[in-house]
Design brief:
This protein is mainly alpha-helical. It has seven helices and no strands.
């Protein structure tokens, strides 16, 4: 796990202040052969509030190493922005999109019956069978 003190010491040894812009810190860490995920995690550790260090670093590992969906609270904690969408709203939207309404199902069935009847009658006319059969008189 990345610790703030180690990252600050590493940056100081390379002549970069921990309060330097993110691009400068990224360039130093990448030139030291750090992986992209570790660079992003280090920048997040440097920019975070020192009071909630443990929970924010755990959130970073959850983002980089799992396929779980992010909750609005976690996005707020990581990015420092407030989201106006609650988890209940997201679940409500997902349930609304899942199935077809009764009228859509009824229209689908009605259109398929009409089209199949027309195709059946056209094939009977083309092959001169059924009601279109002309008996030799």
């Amino acid at each position: 796990m990345l610790e703030r003190a180690h990252i600050e010491k590493f940056l100081m040894l390379n002549g970069v202040s921990p309060t330097a812009p993110d691009e400068e810190i990224k360039s130093v860490l990448i030139s030291a052969s750090w992986q992209e995920d570790d660079v992003n995690a280090a920048i997040l550790v440097l920019r975070e509030n020192t009071e909630s260090n443990q929970s924010r670093v755990d959130s970073v590992h959850r983002i980089f190493h799992t396929d779980d969906k992010l909750k609005p609270e976690m996005v707020s904690a990581l990015l420092g922005i407030e989201m106006g969408v609650s988890s209940a709203d997201i679940e409500l939207r997902q349930t609304q999109r899942r199935g077809l309404t009764f009228t859509e199902i009824f229209r689908l069935i009605a259109i398929s019956i009409v089209l199949s009847a027309v195709a059946f009658l056209l094939s009977m006319w083309y092959f001169e069978i059924g009601i279109f059969h002309f008996a030799a008189v």
